[in-house]
Amino acid sequence: MLALKLGMSLGGSNRPMGAWTPASEGTDLVAWYKNKEGITEDVGVSAWADSSTFSHDMVQDTDSKQPAYNASTGALTFDKTASQSLQTTSQISISDDFTVGVRLDPSAINVIVLGDNTINNEFFKIKDSTTLRFKLSHEGTNTHIDITVNDGDLTADNYLVVTRASDLVSLYVNGTLQTDTETLAGIVDIDAIGVRSPDANPYDGIIQEVQIYDSTSAELTANINTYLSNL
User: Fold this and answer.
1) pTM of the entire structure?
2) In the chain, what are the domains?
3) pLDDT per residue as tens digits for the range 17-35
4) How far apart are CA 50 and CA 212, in angstroms?
């Protein structure tokens, strides 16, 4: 896949000591693309380092495909006309429960937030302003669910938390649990931010943070919502 370029890493944190952070979850935290940290800039962002212990660093060698970076907000801005995206050489695979938190502001619909750019597995997509699509295409299956929101517009500046507990998939928009829930079993494969295989449905707009866990609980969801709301 892509090779990590050398560069200067930008960092900093204003979290009070002792406050909850994703790192508080130990090895349940599978990947953490942290706001304002782990960024390497070339023409745009050539790498976003994983702040978990698993080193699923997201990188982009092609200059034209590197998203822009705003150091003051920590926002990465992706341009779908240039197919801008980031990708890791280490596959993330989750077979059971999971929790994913994202702070984002899409500028278009039918765009991938997280996906797999080596096998046909979208993971999840902003299908339209009121629909989040979650799709698996693992080991010959090709199954998806659509969650319709009852609170908010998915193309706005939002923080989203998606959970799966015993195959029940739920969505929180800005801390509010949506009425629509769906059921979907199977392995989730993720190796890219902003694209799916083969370089399809590129993301357009801002992503400020991504958190991925291989567990779920009410306490974890509440902590992520509070954390993302403060970015």
Assistant:
1) 0.91
2) 81-229 (2.60.120.200)
3) 569 999 999 999 999 999 9
4) 10
